[in-house]
Design brief:
This protein has 175 residues and is of the alpha+beta class. It is built from three helices and five strands, in the order αβαββαββ. β4 and β5 (160-171) form a beta hairpin.
């Protein structure tokens, strides 16, 4: 397994824990997962709806190099082989407020959706602190820096509403 997936799994374990009680609407650990691909699209089946049961994920969004071409002078350390920037995405989605076809969702339903999205965003913050609080620890010594990026609300898309947050990790410690 790569160091990139190690970092994603470390964050995932912390996110699974942060989304349990006392969270206002826990998501079962089996519904907090690694997802692959360019984006996460919650799925809807005839007997299951990932949004309405609650779903959260960690995804590798990108892996890039740190240096520019011609930036390694003769005699430089060969550490450039391991220098990378990893962008991880965390996300959580829930069922959007709905109502009978003759009306619209109530203010209370929208307030509840906003409160739940805020609780999920707070769980993301907790997961980041849990996973990357000690960069000299045995699970993270190879990560040199962590930067929390943007939280972005998502939806309403289909029947889903939620948000994503990105975390940038720099790897430039030699093996």
């Amino acid at each position: 397994m790569s160091r990139f997936l190690d970092a994603a799994n470390l964050l995932l374990g912390c996110f699974q824990t942060a989304l349990q009680a006392p969270h206002i609407a826990p998501i079962a650990p089996e519904h907090v997962m690694l997802r692959a691909g360019a984006e996460v699209t919650p799925l809807l089946g005839t007997n299951d709806d990932e949004c309405c049961r609650g779903m959260a994920w960690v995804r590798i969004a990108s892996i890039t190099g740190v240096r520019q071409i011609n930036s390694t002078a003769a005699g430089d350390s060969l550490c450039f082989r391991g220098e990378r920037t990893l962008l991880l995405e965390m996300g959580a989605v829930r069922c959007a407020p709905t109502s009978p076809k003759e009306s619209v969702p109530t203010e209370d339903q929208w307030n509840q959706a906003a409160t739940l999205a805020d609780a999920d965003q707070s769980a993301m913050e907790q997961a980041i602190c849990c996973a990357f609080n000690d960069l000299d620890g045995p699970d993270t010594w190879w990560i040199s820096d962590v930067a929390v990026q943007e939280y972005q609300p998502t939806g309403v898309d289909g029947n889903c509403i939620g948000g994503t947050m990105t975390i940038e990790l720099t790897f430039n410690r030699c093996c």
